Amino acid sequence: xxxxxxxxxxxxxxxxxxxxxxxxxxxxxxxxxxxxxxxxxxxxxxxxxxxxxxxxxxxxxxxxxxxxxxxxxxxxxxxxxxxxxxxxxxxxxxxxxxxxxxxxxxxxxxxxxxxxxxxxxxxxxxxxxxxxxxxxxxxxxxxxxxxxxxxxxxxxxxxxxxxxxxxxxxxxxxxxxxxxxxxxxxxxxxxxxxxxxxxxxxxxxxxxxxxxxxxxxxxxxxxxxxxxxxxxxxxxxxxxxxxxxxxxxxxxxxxxxxxxxxxxxxxxxxxxxxxxxx
Length: 278
Fold this sequence. Notes:
By secondary structure, the chain is of the alpha/beta class. The protein has two domains: about 5-75 and about 175-240, Rossmann fold (3-Layer(aba) Sandwich); about 90-170, no CATH class. Helix content is about 40%, strand content about 25%. The protein contains twelve helices and eleven strands. The protein has helices spanning about 45-55, 80-85, 95-100, 105-120, 125-135, 140-145, 155-165, 185-200, 215-220, 235-240, 245-255, 270-275; strands at about 5-15, 15-30, 35-40, 60-65, 65-70, 70-75, 90-95, 175, 205-210, 220-225, 230-235. Strand 8, helix 8 and strand 9 form a beta-alpha-beta unit. The mean pLDDT is about 90. Belongs to the ABC transporter superfamily. This is ABC transporter ATP-binding protein.
């Protein structure tokens, strides 16, 4: 088992009192498996995975009956052990590549920093590996792009750089948080194809966070559906699309654009929400 989470909850303090963003979520990820986590914005998808990565602010209260990565208790790790793990064996691609890359450092520096910290490579080896990574993610003329700053690259190129950073140490688990957000359709397809190729080549476990059911159908082996911080349903991808069990899942699938009739796009019905909340 690569990742095992049981009864995860995440709570934040707000001006109006405690807010539970994730409430009793459980899931498992096997080696070489693609798990999709779906749900609308605010359903706790990203917060769940940030909790796994240990990247939430210290004020967040993270609790779980079990949170294991290859048998290691993630909640019991100290800061030093966590730093050795995150970025090497576990890596994450964030939603906004332009905001995630440091604008003050070159692309090459940001890739090589991961290699220096986690693998201890010397300068020559780091540069060679950085060029290899940029080439692997489809950046043209990779050697010259090492000296480029994020603002000198397009959104799609920055997303590819983020992927290069994430896979630099051949992680066992890669979390992709809305990896195609704000990219045009052609670039979205290229990024998804790239992720799936890299996942297959390296045998990584891949968690794909998305609200796009088309992405789920194309990439996932299994699917977890979340709503308001809770897990509504978990199933293999074929079963989910052919025979969804939960009212919220049915409402999500019914709201796909291809199900539109007339001039109106379908929406998640109020009745479905009522059934979920009961």
